[in-house]
Amino acid sequence: MSISVERLTRVYGDFIAVDDLSFEVAPGEIVGLIGPNGAGKTTTLRSLAGILRPTSGRVRIDGHDLVGDPLEAKRRLAFMPDEPHLFEYLTVDEHLRLVARLYGVDDFERRARALVNELELAGKERSLPGALSRGMRQKVVIACGLVRDASVLLFDEPLTGLDPIGIRRMRETILARGRAGAAIMVSSHLLHLVEEICTRVIIMDRGRKIADGTVAELASRAEGAAGSNLEQIFLRVTGHDPDPP
Ligand code: ATP
Fold first, then answer.
1. Is there a single domain that holds both residue 165 and residue 103?
2. Quick check: CB of 21 below 6 Å from ligand 1?
3. Domain that includes residue 188, residue range
4. Which residues on neighbouring strands pair with residue 25, listed in sequence order?
5. How far is CA 186 from each of CA 11, 103, 156, rounded to the nearest angstrom?
6. Residue 133 reports pLDDT greater than 80
7. Is the pLDDT of residue 81 over 80?
């Protein structure tokens, strides 16, 4: 398995943000991580990226334990956070070069050119972050994650701040990486897009996993939700259904 999470728990002080979470993601799978605000999605993704140390439990990336063997595990993953923090004095091109150098990327020029075109950043290569819109800064963060070959891609809210065309293109970008065999997790509140691109969905609420499966599986499991779309399933399983069965 590309991602293996076993009984992950993460506590802040005495608050349990992620509670006994287990799941696996295989190569080529695109798993949507959804849930209400504060459900623990970002905490989960940051724990999978090795930014937060789990309070207990275990995360393995391509079989490498994130705590016991962090270099090998982190070499294989790219985390694209929802906050587009960039270096103020580095241009778009310099950001990509920095990441490429840190990770020893071959064939940088070709990859960078392709990514800049794919993410519609052409013409902005020499711009500093301060001269980019929020959506463009978000695309730079994503380009930095994709400029190297990672087999595990973790996207935290990759669609927020993008215009409708950007959202469409990002959808294609994520699908293409899935087809190429990456194991992908995407957190988002845009449920129709999650439904379109994800092979599987995990729903979290108050730190716990409350559903895991394809949309069709979730619909058949949730009482009275047969034939429902993801939004209706979400409302039902999180107890916010305005029209319960
Ligand atoms: P959203 O949809 O709003 O982005 P989320 O599902 O990503 O939410 P998290 O950001 O993982 O949720 O937060 C989960 C819970 O952990 C929340 O109750 C939050 O207040 C709490 N939390 C997150 N970071 C910290 C922190 N550094 N210290 C204390 N509590 C935190």
1. no
2. no
3. 1-76+150-245
4. 3
5. 22, 23, 6
6. yes
7. yes
Candidate from 8, 16, 21, 43 with most ligand 1 atoms within 8 A of CB, to mutate: 43
Distance in Å, CA 188 to ligand 1 centroid: 14
Please say which residue of 149, 172, 188 terminates a domain. Answer: 149
Using a cut of 0.90, tell me whether the model's pTM lies above it: yes
Claim to verify: residue 162 and residue 71 sit in the same structural domain:
yes
The domain tally of the chain equals 2
Neighbours of 216 (CB within 10 A): 10
| CA 111 – CA 105 distance, rounded (Å) | 9
Range list of β-strands (E), 81-198: 152-156, 183-187
Q: What is the pLDDT of residue 88?
A: 95
Whether residues 217 and 108 fall in one domain: no
Residue 66 sits in the same domain as residue 163: yes
Percent over 70 (pLDDT), the chain: 98
User: Which of 92, 116, 149 is the C-terminal boundary of a domain?
Assistant: 149
DSSP secondary structure, 18-77, as one string: EEEEEEEE-TT-EEEEE-STTSSHHHHHHHHTTSS--SEEEEEETTEETTTSHHHHHHTE
